[in-house]
Amino acid sequence: GVPVHEALGGLSRDKVRSYNTCAGYDYNTKSAQRRDIGAADQLRGPYDDQVAFMRDAGTLAESLLAEGFTAMKIWPFDIYAPPTQGQSITLADLKRGLEPFEKIRRAVGDKIEIMAELHSLWSYPAALRICQALEPLAITWAEDPIGKMDDVASLAELRRATRVPICASETLGGKVAFRDLLVAGATDVVMLDLTWCGGLTEARKIAALAEAWARPVAPHDCTGPVTLVASLHLALHAPTAIFQEVVRATLATWYRDLVTVLPRLEQGWVLPMEGPGLGTALLPGVAKREDAVVRETRA
To answer: By CB distance 3.0 to 4.6 Å, which of 57, 155, 215, 254 could disulfide with 210?
Structure first.
């Protein structure tokens, strides 16, 4: 057998740049998503990065640079969406949401790129206010800024109204949705999740669409180590891929508890997996763990 990236058509690069999504250890797990950090939340280890970006984003950026990362993603605006269901954001909350970005720039200047994750929480007017406020900070992109990411007309209008690049969208499934996104001129960066978009075959077609529209590709993580490895194969193959998302907190904890091999990172770059297929497998006995939830799907 051959590695998946070879089966897809071969490598377009021998490594791909990563960015660290600044989540905590149990982010997107059953116990807690931890999007809302309160006064009672305390750092539970060196990679509890969501608490860190809300408390001391500048020091967090320095920590990431020390490990070789040159890009990071944060979401400090999320906690201000619930009072209005994302329909608006007050000036005071807007300024508070900007503080982590400002702390990063003061601490490390332009040594690190910053992505803003907006988690599809906002109306068009609120998203526009946030994006325009972020413009002076020269962020790399604003991700999933509006509540309905298949509303390509509103997304395209937002893209025209702000200098902040738009990234979309891990929430979309199938090549047709991404085609509509590209035809409308609604995104600067194509973000896709291999588990949700239709698998490797569909992801390859979406990457080809992105290439045809001269748009970069950045595969999503946060959905488990198998998806991460599959995404890495795509990111190494897709001609316009620019980033592979990773979460150092999960790479150091529960991801390693599920699979035999994880991707190798060197100075912020992710290297190809070795061996046939994905290059990794579930650890023996994973399905028998007391905390495992097993679902089987049959055609």
So the answer is: 215
User: Per-residue confidence at 296, pLDDT binned at 50, 70, 90?
Assistant: confident
Q: Which two tokens stand for residue 241?
A: 């891929």
Q: What percent of the chain has pLDDT over 90?
A: 89
| Domain segments of the chain as ranges | 4-288
List, for residues 2-53, the tens digit of each pLDDT value: 999 999 999 999 999 999 999 988 777 665 555 577 777 888 899 999 999 9
Query: Mean pLDDT, the chain, as a whole number?
Result: 95
- Bridge partners for 143 per DSSP: 117, 167
Q: 156-183 pLDDT, tens per residue?
A: 999 999 999 999 999 999 999 999 999 9
Burial label, 294 (beta-carbon count in 10 A; 0-12, 13-18, 19+): exposed
Query: How many CB atoms are located within 10 Å of the residue 179 CB?
Result: 15
Asked whether 126 and 86 are in contact (CB, 8 A), the reply is yes
Amino acid code (one letter) for 214: A
Please provide the CATH number assigned to the domain covering 4-288.
Answer: 3.20.20.120
Distance between CA atoms of residues 221 and 219, nearest Å: 7
Phi and psi based region of residue 177 (left: phi greater than 0; alpha: psi -120 to 50; beta: remaining): alpha
Note whether 97 and 80 are within 8 A (CB).
Answer: yes
